[in-house]
What we know:
- By secondary structure, this protein is an alpha/beta fold.
- The protein folds into two domains: about 5-255, Rossmann fold, CATH 3.40.50; about 275-325, no CATH class.
- Helices cover about 35% and strands about 20% of the residues.
- α2 (about 95-105) packs across α3, α2 (about 95-105) runs parallel beside α4 (about 140-155) and α3 (about 110-125) packs across α4 (about 140-155).
- Mean pLDDT is about 85; it is low at about 305-315 and about 320-329.
Amino acid sequence: MNAFLELTQLGKSYDTEQGRAVIVRDFNLRVSEGEFVCIIGHSGCGKSTVLSIAMGLNDATEGGVIVGGKEVVGPGLDRGVVFQSPALLPWLTARENVQLAVEQVNDRSRRRERKELADKSLTLVGLSDIADCYPDELSAGMRQRVGIARAFALEPKVLLLDEPFSLLDVITRMELQDELMRLWDVERKTVLMVTHDVDEALLLADRIVLMTNGPAATVGEIVAVPFARPRDRLQIVDDPLYERIRSQLITFLKERATPRQISLTEKRKEEAQTSITAEELLVIERYTGFNRFRSRYRQQQPMAEPVEIGTQGATSSCEATGVSRVTLR
Ligand SMILES: Nc1ncnc2c1ncn2[C@@H]1O[C@H](COP(=O)(O)OP(=O)(O)OP(=O)(O)O)[C@@H](O)[C@H]1O
Ligand SMILES: [Mg+2]
């Protein structure tokens, strides 16, 4: 199969007070059309840096990225993105958040068509009955599902996922991994996903890219995952190959262990909540068209008395209030 996503001689450096910091160097990867590739590496080595360059949210210092024969020069709707936190606009319902993305793909389509496509995507991830809920009325897993629905609603050729399940509890994470596997089996998108979880990579990926530690991190090893699809998590762990490949991955990670560096993603883990950060707003603007449709989807004026709605016990029949309850930081 031809490479659909090509990262060639990718490098990223920053000028810091201590001098030039080389984060990533000579990173080469070719991902075939319909292939699922995971990147694993120690915290702070540069995984998100590589992914954000492919997303067009960060510029490479050297080299470049090609998606479907076209060079990446900025964010584009040919790529669906999902992060640790779903970056939903808190004053829009789940459906409206997805609709916003749909509108960017085709702003000439009728409102009803956009709503239907948003509902179809929400149904795909099992959320048809919470379409009218606001993000803070949903559990963390449901919010992340809305983020995935939004990425699929763009009907992108490539999915770029940066630790999409790492903030979720184990059960919800397993559910969403299964959901993603099911969706990928149906749509066979080209996927590049960053994860810290070796078992997640073994379950989902066709190949696993092991990154060396920074500074100047690069591709260390690439490990093929040969399990037949569709995969079942209980079946693959019984395969003798599972332990062998798992040991290979863990040995690589252990041998490359160095003192941890503080990464941007790490800081974000401490900030997981329903309000959105300026960084997330940037992603929303670039990837959902909020900028273009700002007037239509602007935040409503806050009311004098904010309405508190807890995230615990979110049900599938919430009442959408339409009241603004958030402030942008
Ligand atoms: N603007 C910047 N200036 C200098 N260094 C930076 C800048 N942005 C990121 N870095 C550094 O780049 C390195 C890689 O960060 P990145 O977020 O890509 O790591 P990561 O592998 O995704 O980590 P994690 O697994 O914790 O998410 C880190 O050491 C980080 O401190
Ligand atoms: Mg990261």
